[in-house]
Design goal:
Elements: H1 3-15, H2 22-32, E1 39-40, H3 42-51, H4 58-70, E2 75-79, E3 83-87, E4 95-98, E5 103-106, E6 132-135
Parallel strand pairs: 4-6
Antiparallel strand pairs: 1-3, 2-3, 4-5
Length: 138
C-alpha cells in the first residue's frame, strides 16, 4: 500500500475514534485507500487482504466490519436475508443488486421517489428505508 492509502485509512479510522491497529489499518486501506467507495462482502475483503499478504482471519474481518458499521464508517446492506454487503458510502442511497453476478452497486438517488410509507406502529419511528433494486439479464 502507498503512503497516501495508509494516510487515508488512518484518517478514516481516527475520524470515528477507532484506534488504528495493524489489522484495522490493513482493512481500512483496502476499503478506502484509493478514495473510492466500496461494496464488499466479508469474504471478498478477506480474499483481498490475503492477496495483499495481510495476516487476518475471516472472523477478524467480520468483527472489524461490524466495528466499522457500529461507529458509522460503513453501512450493512443485506441481500436475500443471508448475504451482507458492506458499503463505505454511508449516505442514504439506493442500490442495484446484479443477481447474475452477485454484485452490489449504487443506484442513482435522484431518480428514486419514495411516497406513501405506512405509519410506524405506536411507540416506533421509521429509522431508515433500504432500497435494493434487483437486476437480472433478460
Amino acid at each position: 500500500m502507498t503512503t497516501t492509502s495508509t494516510e487515508r485509512g488512518t484518517k478514516w479510522l481516527m475520524q470515528a475514534g477507532l484506534r488504528p491497529t495493524r489489522q484495522r489499518l490493513a482493512l481500512a486501506e483496502l476499503l478506502v485507500g484509493d478514495g473510492q467507495d466500496r461494496h464488499v462482502t466479508a469474504e471478498m475483503l478477506f480474499s483481498s487482504a490475503k492477496e495483499k499478504g495481510h495476516k487476518v482471519s475471516l472472523a477478524t474481518v467480520y468483527n472489524t466490519l461490524r466495528a466499522f458499521c457500529d461507529v458509522g464508517l460503513m453501512q450493512e446492506v443485506t441481500v436475500d436475508g443471508s448475504k451482507s454487503y458492506f458499503d463505505t458510502n454511508t449516505h442514504d442511497h439506493p442500490h442495484f443488486f446484479w443477481e447474475d453476478d452477485g454484485k452490489l452497486t449504487d443506484a442513482p438517488s435522484e431518480e428514486l421517489q419514495i411516497v406513501g410509507l405506512p405509519d410506524a406502529p405506536n411507540g416506533m419511528r421509521i429509522a431508515k428505508v433500504d432500497v435494493v433494486i434487483r437486476l437480472r439479464r433478460e
